[in-house]
Amino acid sequence: MEKTFAIIKPDAFAAGYAGKILARIYEEGFKVVGIKKLYMSKVEAEGFYYVHKARPFFGELTEFMSSGPCIVMVLEAEGAIKKWRDLMGATNPADAAEGTLRREFGGSVGENATHGSDAPETAAFEIGYFFSGLELL
User: Is 115 a catalytic residue?
Assistant: First the structure.
């Protein structure tokens, strides 16, 4: 079984969509092996998104991700990384397919409801950033 990292971002949390997103995660056959509600500091968001530090959207992204509570998760399933990315949909909710989380719950490219790892190496870093091995059941 593969593991991936996922976030229900502050926009979706504030809008009350966390329960609906979690329900979809379970409906799609994922096992939630780690879950936390947290409020990322700006420094924590900058560390998490460090790979984007040189990108023009870095400041806006880290401001947004530290603007309110979110839910971080470790999901497990066969092909979890691709499966989660397919369920999330395109980064821009306007381009996301019908039935995807970003199409249903995202508002813009910057505030698009969910995050997911894009590769096994990314998933390993992202999971380790928020979870210790003892927290994964």
Answer: yes
